[in-house]
Amino acid sequence: MLKPDKLSLNIPATTKPRVVIIGGGFGGINLARKLSDKNFQVVMFDRQNYHGFWPLLYQVATAGLEPDSIAEPLRKMFGGDEYEDFYFRLVKVTNINPIARTVETVVGDLAFDFLVIATGTKINYFGNEQIKKYGFPLKQIPHALNLRSQLLQCFEQASMTTDPEAQQSLLNFVIVGGGPTGVETAGALAEMRKHILPSDYPGVDFTKMNIYLVEGMDRVLPPMSPEASQKTYKYLNEMGIIIKLSTLVEGYDGETAILKGGEQIKTNTLIWAAGVSGAVIGGLPEECVERGRYLVNEFNQVVGYDNIFAIGDVAMMKTPEFPKGHPGVAQPAIQQGKLLAKNLKRIIKKEPLEPFKYYDKGSLAIIGRNRAVADLPNNMHLGGFFAWVIWLFVHIMYLIGFRNKLVVLSNWVYKFFTYENSTRLIIRPYVRKGDRVSQSFINKYGGD
After folding, report:
1. How far apart are the C-alpha atoms of 83 and 388, rounded to whole Å?
2. What is the DSSP letter of 389?
3. Of the candidates 313, 296, 336, the residue with the CA atom closest to the CA atom of residue 139
4. Which residues pair with 381 in a beta bridge?
5. Where do runs of H (alpha helix) occur along 163-241?
6. Distance (Å, rounded) from C-alpha 23 to C-alpha 41?
7. Which domain range does residue 427 map to?
8. Mind telling me the catalytic residues?
9. Which of 143, 378, 389, 428 is the most exposed place for a label (fewest CB within 10 A)?
10. What is the β-pairing status of strands 264-266 and 256-259?
11. Last residue within a domain, chosen from 348, 379, 403
């Protein structure tokens, strides 16, 4: 492996306007696809070489899907003659120099004519370093694989211990955050507890397995409608999930979760799904950032700049309908990416720009088989089987790549008839730093 000082970005010079896109998420890929008319040189930077469909990440973590079924290589997405002046580089951007019009990376700098920041979000631990050290985030594919290994290792150890307290700690799972990620993860674990684990581990009493869902606000799914929250609360209760509303987690040392008010839960697994913040990059003035997101105008231009843009979760476009910015879901990023491509073409043609108008296609969350909630346009709210079918259809449609659609659909069909999660493999045993339990498992039962 070459050292960074032996590498370079190796981007050819061009007479075309150069558009640099930082981030290969929903916003970045939709922008790049629409700039394939050979009027621009497009350069994309990302710290991973694939686009991930993060709404299904929890299914990777709970052994329902393999990671490559929810990800598509960026180079594959932008291969072919139509993208002949597209360049992808697997590199971290460390700084933006708006005066020199350059982005700085760990292997060199690159000049831009237009810069688009589409970096999405990063995990927000709200300053709690203890939870950051011992908790399990669920934001990227490596996080999902770590959590999958942790869950399966807990079940394996629970089948081998004769200590009731140790076994209970292994079978207690605390999920912090009652948004879509937390709710969907809790539902998936509850279905594993009912349909899969008793046959895999016949010597373990899984009626003792506790799934806690801890939410700081007074209802689950705060971003969705009160109707969706009420239905979700009902579904979670029916599935035997212990819901703690208006409750905060103050600490976690790898063995005990401490809730505000003093309650303690012995657990080896705390899943952090409580919050994110914009993944901003250094270099732009502080007044460009508010609440961890770049302030942008109706054309997605970062305030104070006409050639620097931000789209998706990292952008805060304040409107009367969305005074705190658009919701951090895929649709705003997709729509902003597509419109920005049109506006960049208008800029080089010296035509007026088109302002962004968000079309809310609705919000969805799945809790389990035949259990889902949907907030649809025209103030329509659905729950149960019909919402579940809509959720399945929408997620298949928005997956990238025909192979991924086919693999995920076949997995879901198989699971519908068998209740099986077919990827219950500990491929890489997980060892959390300072965690005596997981280290003991590796030492005794396998792994290097």
Report:
1. 37
2. H
3. 313
4. 375
5. 164-170, 180-195, 197-200, 226-238
6. 16
7. 129-274+369-440
8. 184
9. 378
10. antiparallel
11. 348
CATH number, position 294: 3.50.50.60
pLDDT band at 433 (very low <50, low <70, confident <90, very high): low
- Residue 430 sits at the vertex; the CA angle it makes with 426 and 434, to the nearest 5 degrees, is 155
CA–CA separation, 155 vs 356, rounded Å?
A: 49
Number of structural domains found in the chain: 2
Q: Locate 360 and state its tokens.
A: 């809310």
Q: Contact at 8 Å (CB) between 93 and 45? A: yes
Q: 123 — phi, psi (to 5°)?
A: -70, 135
- Nearest to 184, CA basis, from 287, 306, 61, 35: 61
- Over residues 213-238, the pLDDT tens digits come to 999 999 999 999 999 999 999 999 99
Tokens representing residue 438 in the block: 């997981």
Give the per-residue pLDDT at 38: 79
Say if 247 falls within a structural domain: yes
For residues 225 and 259, membership in a common domain is answered with yes
3-class DSSP assignment, residue 365: strand
Under 8 Å between Cβ of 25 and 44 = no
DSSP letter assigned to residue 13:
P
Give the side-chain half-sphere CA count within 13 A for 161: 19
Long-range contacts of 89-95 (CB under 8 A, 24+ apart): 89/9, 89/11, 89/43, 89/44, 89/45, 90/46, 90/47, 90/48, 90/49, 91/9, 91/45, 91/47, 92/45, 92/47, 93/22, 93/45, 93/281, 94/281, 94/282, 95/281, 95/282, 95/283
> Could you report the per-residue pLDDT of 284-332, keeping only the tens digit for each?
999 999 999 999 999 999 999 999 999 999 999 999 999 999 998 899 9
How would you list the strands of the sheet with 380-383, edge to edge?
Answer: 363-368, 371-376, 380-383
Strand spans (E) along 113-234? 114-117, 121-123, 136-137, 172-176, 210-214
Residue 157, token pair as written in the block: 């150890």
pLDDT tens per residue across span 362-417: 999 999 999 999 999 989 999 999 999 999 999 999 998 899 999 999 989 888 87
- The encoded tokens of residue 294 equal 């770049």
Secondary structure E strands in 292-438: 293-295, 308-310, 315-316, 363-368, 371-376, 380-383
Q: Identify whether 66 is part of a domain.
A: no
For the entire predicted model, the pTM comes to 0.92
Q: Which whole-number Å values give the CA distances from 231 to 215, 236, 367, in the listed order?
A: 16, 9, 10
Q: What are the backbone dihedrals phi and psi of residue 375, each rounded to the nearest 5 degrees, phi first?
A: -105, 110
Q: Are 159 and 203 in contact (CB under 8 A)?
A: yes
- Return the closest-CA partner of residue 332 out of 346, 344, 321: 321
